Amino acid sequence: MRKPDIKLGKWKFYQVKLEDKTVFNNYLKASQWPVNLWSANFPFIWAFGQSPQRKLLWRIIDGLLVTFVLNKDNILSLLCLPFGSGNIDTLINVLYKSMSYCKDWNGKKGPKTRLRTINSEQLEYLQTSSSFNDLFKIKQLRGLERHYSIPELIALQGKKFESLRKTLNRFYRKYPKIELKEYIPAYYKDILVFNEEWEKKARNKYSTIFDRIYFKEILKNQRELDMLVLVAFYDNKVVGVNLSNLAPKAEGWGCICKSNKEFEGLNEALVLAMVKKIYALNNSSKYLNVGSDMGNKGLMQFKEKFRPVKNLERYRLYIK
């Protein structure tokens, strides 16, 4: 293992790098509590740290891998729950120790010490500890984290998917020339041009989407991050893209899916094509986590089309 990259007070930390993927995935896979938070997947953790606004750091504490965020104001916090093997007492102790260190580092004048996000399944597990409420407090965040059923979307049967089937059939009838292709590096520049045009049109409608940094970084490093990328073409022009991943616990991770608005049904076609791709890689995959709708009405309505089987509330965790 390489030498630590940074020292803050008495503790030494590693800065999250692409070479850390295997370490993170091994600890994530060994975790005995829910680790299905959308922002706790390595591609996001790495890409989130590519912004000049922050550094993503990690260290092993009592056998668990803990991910820290050091922002531009030198404020230290936790990104997500620790990863690794242990029981509820191990998790609570490491969580409290890590957040206490952040609190001491930030000082009395700093902001409240926080863990950025947990979902309701993780909160339910934490609350099985008798000491949780004495040590921590929570604040509910806007939006629900949506998880689709992969087997249901493969079958696409029943009345609840009638509208989605019609949308899909209409799309393929109306746009027979659209091709969905697996990504190759030769598509990179064309995808960036498409993304720039998409952002100009969608900036006001989806102002809460914060993919301007990590879309480019994840796409550029898609092979190293084990990303699955589908690209939609119409007359040799990129009109849509879907970036996803098969997480270590065999859950699908929907990173980004976007398309030109003029092609009605293309977004749905990209999602369902990616579901099939994930299922082909691992037919035991049950869920596709597509992240939070951020409380945005348009995102809520779109994600509801796929009849999510888990709609998890999200929380920010603070140390008392």
Task: Based on the model shown, name its key terms.
2 domains, five-stranded antiparallel beta sheet, Aminopeptidase, 11 helices, single chain, 320 residues, alpha+beta
Structure description:
The chain is of the alpha+beta class and 320 residues long. It has 2 domains: 6-144, Aminopeptidase, CATH 3.40.630; 146-312, Aminopeptidase, CATH 3.40.630.30. The protein is built from 11 helices and 13 strands. It has helices spanning 21-30, 42-48, 88-106, 120-126, 132-135, 150-155, 162-174, 188-202, 214-220, 266-281, 297-304, and strands at residues 6-8, 11-15, 54-61, 64-71, 76-78, 114-119, 136-149, 179-182, 227-234, 237-246, 252-259, 287-292, 310-319. The strands form 2 sheets. Strands 6-13-7-12-11-10-9-8 form an 8-stranded mixed β-sheet, with helices on both faces. A 5-stranded antiparallel β-sheet has the order 1-2-3-4-5, with helices on both faces. A hairpin with a 2-residue loop joins strand 9 (227-234) and strand 10. Helix 2 packs across helix 9. It is globular and about 60 Å long.
Low-confidence stretches: none
How many strands? Answer: 13
How many structural units, i.e. domains?
2
Q: Would you tell me the overall average pLDDT?
A: 94
What is the first-to-last residue Cα distance?
35 Å
CATH C-level category of the largest domain: Alpha Beta
CATH superfamily of the largest domain: Gcn5-related N-acetyltransferase (GNAT)
Tell me the fraction of residues in β-strands, as a range: 25-35%
Structural classification: alpha+beta
Note the main sheet.
Answer: 8 strands, mixed
CATH fold name of the largest domain: Aminopeptidase
Q: Give the count of helical stretches.
A: 11
Widest beta sheet: strand line-up:
6-13-7-12-11-10-9-8
Calculate Rg over CA atoms: 20 Å
Categorize the overall geometry.
Answer: globular
Element pattern in H and E: EEHHEEEHEHHEHHEHHEEEHEHE
